[in-house]
Amino acid sequence: MSIPQKPAGYSAVSPYLIVDGAAASIDFLKQVFDAVELRRFPDAEGRLLHSEVRIDDSVLMIADCVPEWPAVPAHVHVYVRDVDATYRRALDAGATPLQAPEKKQDEDKRGGFRDARGTTWWIATRVE
User: Fold this and answer.
1) What are the Cα distances from residue 111, in Å, to 16, 20, 22, 76, 92?
2) Whole-angstrom Cα distance, residue 80 to residue 102?
């Protein structure tokens, strides 16, 4: 019997965020996206060496930065059920607005914000 190449319920691609403040990032994702925390591996000082959350059908991996792995700004796109409500929750959670949700040329209504750790989140809901 062969071993699957990935855990059950994981997609083949998972964004990996290296941030200054991984625990706070997880709290933000729970508040904004109803993320579910899957795993958390802290070191002796409480920094997160590795953590995982599920947002809808995707797993996002997050770790605290260290000198050999500095924080890196990232952009992540997430399809959500209600782009307007998600955008409001993000701003209520302290995110910086980048683009209020609006319908443009494609089938999506989308917007964007930046969280306190520097990750830019683009969110969209299919409207057509």
Assistant:
1) 22, 24, 23, 12, 15
2) 14
Strand partners, 108: 126
β-strand pairing of 48-55 with 36-42:
antiparallel
Confidence of residue 111 (pLDDT cuts 50, 70, 90): very high
Which of the following CATH numbers is that of domain 16-126: 3.20.20.140, 2.120.10.10, 3.30.70.120, 3.10.180.10? Answer: 3.10.180.10
Taking only the tens place, the pLDDT of each residue in 27-74 is: 999 999 999 999 999 999 999 999 999 999 999 999 999 999 999 999
- Nearest Cα neighbor of 62 from 41, 46, 87 is 41
Distance CA 49, CA 61 (A): 10
